[in-house]
Specification:
single chain, about 675 residues, alpha+beta, seven-stranded mixed beta sheet, 23 helices, 22 strands, elongated
Amino acid sequence: MEHSPHTHQHSNHQDHDKHAGHSVAMFKDKFWLSLLLTLPVLVYSEMIQHWFSFTPPSFVGSEYVPFVFSTIIFLYGGLVFIKSAWGELKAKLPGMMTLISLAIITAYVYSVATQFFIQGDGFFWELATLVTIMLLGHWLEMASIAKAENALDAISKLLPDKAEKLINNKPVNILVSELRVGDLVLIRPGSSIPVDGIIVDGTSSVDEAAITGESKPVSKSVNDEVIAGTGNQDGSLTVKVTKLGEDTALAGIMRLVSEAQTSKSNVQILADKAAFYLTFIAIGTALVTFIFWFIAKDAGFALERSVTVLIIACPHALGLAIPLVVSISTALSAKNGLLVRKRLALEAARKLDWVLFDKTGTLTKGEHGVTDIWATKGFTDKDILHLTASLEQNSEHIVGRGIVRKAEEQGVKLDKVSDFKALPGLGVQGALHGKEVYIAASYRYVEENKLTVPAEIAKAVKQAAKQGKTEVYLITNKKVVGALGLADVVREQSKQAITTLKSMGVKTAMITGDSDEVAAYVSKQLGLDQYFAEVKPEDKAAKVKELQKNGQQVAMVGDGINDAPALTQANIGIAIGAGTDVAIKSADIILIKNNPEDVVKVIKLSKATYRKMQQNLVWATGYNVFAIPLAAGVLYGAGIVLSPALGAVLMSVSTVVVALNAQLLRRIRLTH
């Protein structure tokens, strides 16, 4: 997947790109050479000699030095602006390049005329310095944009070119492009993973930071998925290829990031309009200035003023104000595990009133975990966990796996089971320590075998059942000796996310198909403002609408297929990354990590980005309000006159200020 950081041409002429086909290196080379050629022009210009009282060595034709060198500068350094201006005019979008071109063509033609045909002072040295300063400004601008887009470049560099394909169990080095789905690939310790695939052999830990932003390496073993572009660390893995090239998660991320960089934001549209009108204002002002000074003074002065107006009014800073911020915020979001598909969504996130979370898989992990353990006399909680987990250690059932996971977390050693037997639909039984037969089973087993549940457990279990928990009973010698309560585990980050959102003045709600009791229990645990329970998938979008009444801005956070209509209905649809493709396609922003706290990052980034855009717009337009009248010679009577070269310096300074201000966005911390 190739991505060129410097050429972003768009097919739509409405999106005419003033830098189509330009590169950082081109402007850099043109700047240095023009600077070198400007020196003799300055040395042989009468005005400069007069200012600094010096006389350069004279030779035959020395009076033509400014003309010759300026012509080279005009053709070598200036043509790039004229070509771009032609593009702007063809797209019926006159802008910055049009203004620069008008200024340099007028200055050049007039100077040549004074050299050979008419009386007057030429602008050769002003023209030379002007083109040189313009090239510097563009070089700095392109470098800033390239730096912002380097995030994408960095992502594309994560993919290795070659892979080791296993042919008859022997690794053979081939190009990644030659791999096919279903091939087996050997990934050695320390190498980069070239494809999306499933591990068929080996265990290792994988550094997924570049893709998910997860700082800790993730341990992987057989049947786990791996993602192209992540780094294998300590073990050898054999991976079966499931996705290649354009279909990999990495390619998807790249597509989303570049989509986001080209999608316009509201502020960008505003800036484009401002630049468009500024072009007409500048041309109008330049004409009026010329006519006024032509009558009041002379043609040379009139031309100098109008050229200065054209230069100073170049909406350069305006043209850069928003795209740079957009570029940097896109790079920042990708770095922080947020994929912004629609710029407008990120822009609107600062105004959110509600964040509505789907429960299962979003606020919760979507997997059963042990929440309670009850024991009868003679047994401790640890005994109950130890015995039940030992029975369940080979279970494929979601409940059994949850119990074993809890035992592993607690560091409980599991015993060997003999005479193991599955009781279909009810539970499992087996002998532990060689003799005692234990059974781990559901309440149905207790009922069918007419067992009594000890009073001290019965009451607690009844309460847990109301909260939607699943209970598993431990039985031996036809007696219930303990029980465990399991529930869909609330993610550790959910509570923090809700607390932070509340502190930011954003209300939180939850939507779920679960019973009212379960929803009430989770809602209370997290401190939500509202919850919707027993909602059928097709009714989720209607609940979003309900929150949207009175113009409230709602973000919906979900992961499942049935969340797609709700994600689309919400003002901002946010998908949790491990969710389904459908949810991701209907979302505006995707959280690569399954972390609800990242919603907070979205809002913080939105606010910071908007602030920067505003600052840049104020600076870029405010500068013109002051500079254009000065350039037109309003203060000529007071002895204040801006030369074209100084105009160019000021214009470049305004551009650099805007570029630096945008770069400050990089310093924002999105995590607490």
